[in-house]
């Protein structure tokens, strides 16, 4: 097993890419699973908010779950904004060497704003204007 950790802005396509990779790997008979905000925040992390401390705990828990999946031989794709290198490094340290791949989904802010599926950009202060 291993972990493919997709990180990037909200709306950048992390979950879409993780799901596409999962489908290809599953078709090749690999055991796969996608962890993203939709399936983690409704169960395991439903008691967490969006404070800096809760965001850190959210990523810590995801890293621990991803480790369990990888230890069981599953290729797990995670799709989270996870903007802090320290949080991603903490998750990386849980996984056996060579079994953690970080993928930064580089998408222009303007495209992410257009997608804005969760209304995050619409409600954010306009710091660029």
From TrEMBL:
One of its GO terms (molecular function) is ATP binding. One of its GO terms (biological process) is sulfate assimilation. It catalyses: adenosine 5'-phosphosulfate + ATP = 3'-phosphoadenylyl sulfate + ADP + H(+). Keywords: ATP-binding, Kinase, Nucleotide-binding, Transferase. Pathway: Sulfur metabolism; hydrogen sulfide biosynthesis; sulfite from sulfate: step 2/3. InterPro entries: APS, APS_kinase_dom, P-loop_NTPase. Residues 1-124 form the APS kinase domain. Pfam families: APS_kinase. The keyword Hydrolase does not apply. It comes from the Eukaryota. Its EC number is 2.7.1.25. Catalyzes the synthesis of activated sulfate. Belongs to the APS kinase family. This is Adenylyl-sulfate kinase. It comes from Geodia barretti (Barrett's horny sponge). The lineage of its organism: Eukaryota, Metazoa, Porifera, Demospongiae, Heteroscleromorpha.
């Amino acid at each position: 097993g291993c972990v493919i950790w997709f990180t990037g802005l909200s709306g950048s396509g992390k979950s879409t890419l993780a799901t596409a990779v999962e489908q290809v790997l599953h078709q090749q008979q690999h055991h796969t699973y996608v962890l993203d905000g939709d399936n983690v925040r409704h169960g395991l992390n439903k008691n967490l908010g969006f404070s800096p401390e809760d965001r850190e705990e959210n990523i810590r828990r995801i890293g621990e779950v991803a480790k369990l999946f990888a230890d069981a031989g599953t290729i797990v794709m995670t799709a989270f904004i996870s903007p802090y290198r320290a949080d991603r490094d903490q998750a990386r340290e849980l996984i056996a060497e060579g079994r953690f791949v970080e993928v930064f989904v580089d998408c222009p802010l303007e495209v992410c704003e257009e997608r804005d599926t969760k209304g995050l950009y619409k409600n954010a202060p306009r710091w660029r204007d």
